[in-house]
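Structure, all two chains, one model.
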Amino acid sequence: MDTAPEHAHSGPPGGRDYTDVQHSAEFSELRSSYRSFVFPLTVAFIVWYLLYVLLSNYAGGFMGTKVVGNVNVAFVFGLAQFLTTFLIAWWYSRFAAAKLDPKAEALKTRLEAENLQRATDAGGTARPESGTIGHQADPRDQDKGELAGQEDDA
Amino acid sequence: MSATHAIAAPAVQLAAEGASAHRPLIITLFSVFVAITLAVTVWAGRRTKDAADFYAGGRQFSGFQNGLAISGDYMSAASFLGIAGAIALSGYDGFLYSIGFLVAWLVALLLVAEPLRNSGRYTMGDVLAYRMRQRPVRTAAGVSTIIVSIFYLLAQMVGAGALVALLLGITGETGKNLIVVFVGVVMILYVTIGGMKGTTWVQMIKACLLIGGTVIITFLVFHKFNYNLSSLLGAAAENSGKGAAFLEPGLKYGATTTSKIDFISLGIALVLGTAGLPHILIRFYTVPTAKAARKSVNWAIGIIGVFYLMTIALGFGAAALLSPKTITDSNAAGNTAAPLLAQEIGGGADSTGGAVLLAMISAVAFATILAVVAGLTLASSSSFAHDLYANVIRKGNATEKEEVKAARVSAVIIGAVAIGLGIFAGKLNVAGLVALAFAVAASANLPTLLYSLFWKRFTTTGALWSIYGGLISSVLLVFFSPVVTGKESSMFPDVDFAWFPLENPGLISIPLGFLLGWVGSLFSKDEGAGGAKYAELEVRSMTGVGAH
């Protein structure tokens, strides 16, 4: 928190270049499994929602058809939107926990170890600044890790 | 103006008669809420030491706690009172709000919450400006945050003023203005003393009260109809005087081609607005990790979803048990349908049960407004202090103490602005303002947020075009719409310069925001650092390395 403000928003400890990480096979895999799950799903639920909006507007007769008692198609459609929202949230979370989190965490652990190494190695002029940041960032990240672990158990 | 008075006068009288006997009870319950929440705020304030505490509640809330707080922030007076009223008066068309407000959370869950938590620090501007030239983009993000929040804030304050006046039976401008000032002052205390920690606890308490109150009413309504949804709907359709049409889409929006297009516009604004609302986005910073942010959205979807399902019972219950005239006499827009239903289902106006339930639901409504207003004020003062003051005005040379002080001062100023607007804008159309806040958020904030996170070629120029283009177009289109002038229900019914036919600008301004971001990026040079900066943002947002 006490880092120089101009660095505060402009990046990670040590100000390293992440282009190599971005191009690494490990990261590409993480990114493509995230995007290939999330993008089609987003398009799908927006289309499904818009279908519902358009049917409400332009297919009044169909939407007014009674299904059970006074419950009509429009109502069932509306409740189905609730159901799909719950299901998509559950499905994504399951997917993320199984496929994304392990990869992201492995990468994070590796990168943080690298960053720490850089901070320790960096001598001379860069020393005081990166040293401070390294020491500060470290125990906190450990905290976070523990917390995340606790949550998993819960 | 005279027309407004003609509607308002008997309504105030009627509610005053009904509510006067229960006034002590309502005031007691509400005072208890204020006392408890202020105590919690002071307690949280003692534990607020640095900027991360003030802006992000120390980042130590659990996923469940934050999910509850998000629900508290999201279920505003517009959701609770507005949707119940809309269903009670327009039947099925009112229910569409519930659906849009809920589905919108998937955008936040799938695309925004986790990357935002991983790469930002305190505000939405942190992520928008990450890869860009800091000063111009932070300025734009700050301006947009404050404008969206003030529109949302204004709607809540106007709602608070009108509702409080009706429920407490305080008539006349002076009494109502006093209430608006009171709400404003309590909210300023929450934010300046308690910061994000205090505000988060207030949201959690409020969410529990709102859910608890709604569960009781829902249970009582269903009990009355032998737990049979079909007979509840049948009774609502019959009692509304509209028959089967009451249960079908189109009662409110199906009249003309324009109203149908307006409905599509509203639908798009609702589904895309949530993930661009600054007061919702900053909530993701209150948890320690992206995983916890995901968990909090899941809890929020569960809680908010169940709540919106219960609006079926509130709205159709009110339609089934109250005459349409009772509802509109009390409030022309149906905003008091939920409290009136509580009174009816408790045994009627003269019974103790009715009095207790009315008092309870009214106190819950107050708590709702107060908490949401506090969340909005916190979002805009955070953005002012962190984006505009620390990074633009002081160019990053402000100390943490100065920054937090600026946030507290701006919370007082924004609170004062809200009080002023609430007093002077007493007759404005609340629903129009809430929908505008969603449309502005979806037009100005969402495109830049998504492009920043997912599109490598995005540039500073693209971000500025998108934010300002979306902001200006949505605000201007509303200004020239029937919301402001030209219709009896307009803010200024006596003037007419409404050349834009739709009440919600989303259909035009949201695609425009996306288009401008794209065109602006194509027409500008990719900054030299663009590639490296994007690499950094992408790796951070996906893995959480270096997250604050």
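Residues 1-14, 124-154 of chain A have pLDDT under 50 and may be disordered.
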